[in-house]
Write a structure and sequence with these properties.
Low-confidence stretches: none
Largest sheet: 3 strands, antiparallel
Helix content: 25-40%
Radius of gyration: 15 Å
Number of domains: 1
Order of helices and strands: EEEEEH
Strand order of the largest sheet: 1-2-3
Strand content: 25-35%
Shape: globular
Number of helices: 1
Number of strands: 5
Length: about 100
């Protein structure tokens, strides 16, 4: 069974935010149902490219952060493929 599947990395500023690093969240949407979770990493808002969903820059810490996000992205795709192959229902919470 096919389902619409999308995911997005984004920054979620806490209430009362003034400055400093902001937590990165992953939003998975399957057939208009959302699930969100923190990825356990932070990024400065001025280093974040919201259109790409990744940090922008060429320093080692930015490269390491983007590599981590790429690994998470690959795991989400892998789990989606495994669920489809097994005939299991695909939901945002399961992914």
């Amino acid at each position: 069974m096919q389902s619409n599947f999308n995911f997005l990395f984004y920054l979620k500023k806490p209430k009362g935010y003034v400055s400093g690093p902001v937590p990165i969240y992953l939003r998975i949407t399957v057939d208009e149902q959302r699930a969100e979770m923190s990825v356990g990493r932070e990024c400065l808002p001025d280093k974040w490219n919201s259109q790409a969903g990744f940090a922008s820059g060429s320093k080692e810490d930015i490269k390491a952060l983007n590599a981590y996000l790429n690994i998470l992205q690959a795991k989400v795709h892998q789990n989606h493929a495994l669920l489809l192959a097994a005939g299991e229902p695909v939901t945002a919470e399961v992914l």
